[in-house]
Fold each of these.
Amino acid sequence: MPNLKTELLREGMVVISDVKNLHDMLLIPAGAVLSERQIGILQAWGVADVEVEHSKATEETDPVAGLSEETRERLQAEIRNRFWDPDDSNPFFVELSKLLLQRRASKVTVNS
Amino acid sequence: MSAPSLATLISGIPSTLGSYGPVLKKIDAAMQSPQCNLVTLGEAIEIDPDLTARLLRLANSSFYGFSSRVSTVTEAISLIGIQQVQDLILASSIVERFSGISDEFVSMESFWRHSLACGLTARLLAMELRLPQADKCFVAGMLHDIGRLVLLSEAPQIALEIFTLYRQERLLLREAEQRVLTFDHQQIAAALLKEWNYPGSLIEVVACHHQPLLAKANVQQACAVHVADYLVHALELGSSGEAYVPALNLKACEKIHFHTGMLSAVIARIDEQIEAVEDAFLHSVQPS
């Protein structure tokens, strides 16, 4: 499921995992349909991104969703090959790989 | 070629503070005086216009994030603290001291970008996770790979041997250092900082950044620098010669209560601050 940067969120997107601030306080529960007010709350707390349900709206805003399968696989392999110990049981590696893919995808989108 | 000892490696490095020496001496003298106050400390720093401009630039950047504009050195000292200002000057003096190293193995611009990014990330983690001495984490992060610069400047032939082995056998650069020298850049940095009389807390963090749980008195700061080094490698913010993102010690993350949910926000803050920090430490300041 795509992790969308907060500035790309739109009203009506569905949040699929709890969103907490750095102090572990729940801001938006999983399953919530985002309102403009809630997006404002996320921005006010400096939440960088949110996991939302895949939809037409996310395809339009998520740089990874806009990649061809071939390009996505190539970028994923490039990211993986840079790690000395690409361990899929390491949650930091898994989450970081997702975020790095978004960064690379944004560059591909900008350059294309 | 026989590998040099730690003592031989660091023996050729001068302990002077370069162009920052006079400022640090003035600050020391001002602090010894019974009449010491913010104004006299500010005057001590203002003898160096380049340093003054860098300090004000940093004080007004997102690195500190003060709500109002800082326009004088005195204000900057009162907000940042004299200890942090001294640390920033020492860090700048080290950038200066190692200038002029050939880019054959590592681009120096890239090396300092990696070092600064690691410093600011370690500081960010320490602040977010409420670890003690967050500003010390910045200096430790900035100096964590300084042992590599010693190798490149003092033993280029040995550096060539290490980089050749590293490329041929697909090792981590640190492993290649250990094979050739029997010690690595962590021990070299610790020996150098000890020689320069840097505080023991800083030396321990730098000496343990790849095995942070070995640190005794400063284990949280060592963990912050370890995690910061991993993130900065992954984000490709400069390079100290190592092409791979080294392994992350998950126990170090647990030790400082760093969890995956924080990654995205921390990365966004790194992106926000890196330019300001590079400007303050690496780029020349144009006189206004």
Amino acid sequence: MNSFDYLRPSTISEAVAAASTPGSAYLAAGTNLLDLMKGGVARPSRLVDINRLPGLDRIEPLSGGGVRIGALVRNADLAHDADFARRFPAVAEALLSGASAQLRNAATVGGNLLQRTRCPYFYDVASACNKRTPGAGCEARGGDTRLHAVLGWSESCIATNPSDFCVPLVALDAVVEIAGKDGRREIPLESFHRLPGDAPERDSVLEPGELIVAVRLPAEAAAFSAHARYLKVRERTSYAFAVVSAAAALRIEGGAIVEARIALGGVALKPWRSHAAEHLLAGARPDVAAFRRAAQAALQDAKPSGDNAFKIQLARGIVSRALTLAAAGTPARMPALPASPFAVTPGVLPHV
Amino acid sequence: MSISISLTVNGAMRKIELDDPRVTLLDLLRERLDLTGTKKGCDRGQCGACTVHVDGRRINSCLALAVSCDGAQVLTIEGLARGDALHPVQAAFIAHDGFQCGFCTPGQIMSAVGLIQEGQAGDDPERVREGMSGNLCRCGAYAGITDAVLDAQRQLADLERRQVA
């Protein structure tokens, strides 16, 4: 690990000023950053410890029915907040399907949005990587690409975003609140992460020094609470990143879908929402035929970035199955294996 | 740069001078405070051997900077027994053969104590396995570990009921 200066500001404006110096990084739990620093992937010259900034560790109900989640709320605290989990069950399920209990106890909401790709070529400093070193090239191309992107990738980068949390959040129109040198701004989560294009070194639209202070969910997001699921295929049942995942949320009235929300994880460098699939479901009956059509639409533009064509077919299956599970209803209790395709749901066929 | 921090480790207040902010909580415990019960396995947050409690929550001490833990209460495997009396989770690991080589055991036990305190698993072995998935055991003692956690949880619940009654 490279040496660095350590600062512990006591206000948000001090933190933003301290982190605006080139080479600075914010430190929250550090569960991703320290790992990257130990591997020499991240080499910040200054760490700005934000753990003691006041007011960022609260889950606040908003007057209109939404919720504001402070950037320092720990993943486990959010997932186990009974009121939050009841109103936004797919978000709680996604959180509990990620990492391990120890990591969820430490990792923060803001840090989750900013975690870096788990592409092995990004992590291996002996490999060329445009994200790590702009212009260096991409050794993932033509390499071991089984788990790489099938949507939104470019010749410069085929990595994926590893977040589970962001997948239902983007489906539910989450908004990111940001503090910077010029004050506050907010941006829909859907526009927060960047696709690689020819500048894959920039993961998000954050400018130097900008700090995530909160994530908001609007009141409308809670209208899906009776039919909201997250489904995640991993290479082992627990404590693994998604090969492909999907969040599905439905509003069903009088036997028909009034509104649908669908997003995918593990397929692109950002949490991937499919408005096309959502539109197809509006007004449809919640049956397997409709869900399959939606899944086709969600993967319409997918193309393999290497040896990973299987992920496209897998993603179609995961989307239609997540929709089937959502239509069957949010379980009364969090499943023992959150988001697992191996969890048995009474009344739902295991394969659709 | 030298930084002064204070930690309460297993109930004892410790003042520590860090000459470098790179020290992880794990390295501080093992190399500076001679608390070598906490193990360094992968050092990358993947194996759980370094699990300790910080302010009552189980975390991976390899991924926490000591300087950032300033003021925290830290509990390690050395702080679990009361004199010669093992903590019920420690005793249950022996009773159920919850280890073979023992390297992952301090992390397993600290994780199990955390899991029981979190109160999410109930008596469901599947929930216990899921809640313990952050602790790898290369000897494969998982069946014994799951039994030990379930048994210790029952014993602790009984103890609590007796204390209330």
